[in-house]
# Entry
Amino acid sequence: MSAKRGPRKATAAYLRNAAVYYLDRYASSAANVRRVLMAKVERSARAHGTDRAEGAAAVEALLAGFVRDGVLDDARYAAGRALALHRRGASARAIRGRLAAKGVAREHIDRAIAGLRDESGEPDLSAALIFARRRRLGPYRPPAARAGHRDRDLAALGRQGFAYDLARRIVDADDATALEEETDSR
# Structure
């Protein structure tokens, strides 16, 4: 049985390799990569006594290089992530929250949401329909069970960040095809 190895020393080369490996696996914002690398610096400082300020400077220099070379682009990340979340049925409010949690600047988030409006006239309606279809809510539920689950369906849409009026419009719709055609015609 081998002993558990502790954290590695946070050298500039190690941090670069860790960042490249992370970015190979995940799309990320600069602030999120900073958070990941600073956690490595902190673990290294606790385990090896390395200088936190020196590690932070190495992280900032590394991030500046990645931004300059186009490896990290928060605007591109926000647009791609917003589109992916929208296609899964996330509301604009939920998308804003997720991107803000990843450290994306407000102007990039606003542009990403505006891009969704360009793609689909009413992004919250189309996302709510996607979510309702995935979860079999409202008009996607068998007709016999709809009335008994109305409040539950409204609550599910509300928890996803959709406005009450929109949730009610979807849950109370007789048929989802009319709403889907409305989003397709834009």
Q: What stands out?
A: The chain is about 70% helix and 0% strand. The mean pLDDT is 93.
